[in-house]
Task: structure prediction
Amino acid sequence: MSPQTMADDLAYIRDLAEAGKNAPLLGGRFLVLWGGLTTAAYIGHYAIAEGMFGLQPVAFAIMWIAYAILGVGGMYLLKMSYPDSKPGRASTGNKVSALVWQASGYFLGAYFLGAFLSAMIFDVFSPFLWSVPMVVGLYGLSQYVSGVISNTAPLKLAGILAMLSVVPAILLSGTNYMWLLGSAVAAVCVLAPGIILMRHEPSETV
Result:
């Protein structure tokens, strides 16, 4: 292989990488799903904790079980209905964004499984009280990484805001206002960016 051929091949690979680097992110619908569910669930948790509408403590379990079912079921349906022909699915930005959110999801799943078992076996509920700072922090980390890798300003801003919200979330831990803060962060830093990403998704043909 001649040096010129190698140079041409490297230039071609570089052009492909640069083209894919700025491909729009395609995870907006998943952000809308989880952002919307989390916003509603945290508001619901606050309402139950405050004794609104005469709801009993058992409503906590019912609501969060429904949250998990709707979230997992919604993810499955969205993945099944997602077109393979969407341009940019193989871009670095989309791969990294999907991976960091997947890792965050695994961590949260493990944490809440442990919290649930702690409540069931030892009647200890403190892990739930510390969950909001952790959740908003992971939201921030995932959004910031996705925003940096794809050069998407709204995601970078959402990530920074969510990570900064860890401070008031810790200060409010143990109070019912913590759930309202978590709801606001989910709406502003996950749901709203998801809507923005969906509006900028490319069509199936280019």
Summary: The mean pLDDT is 88. The two ends are 34 Å apart (CA to CA).
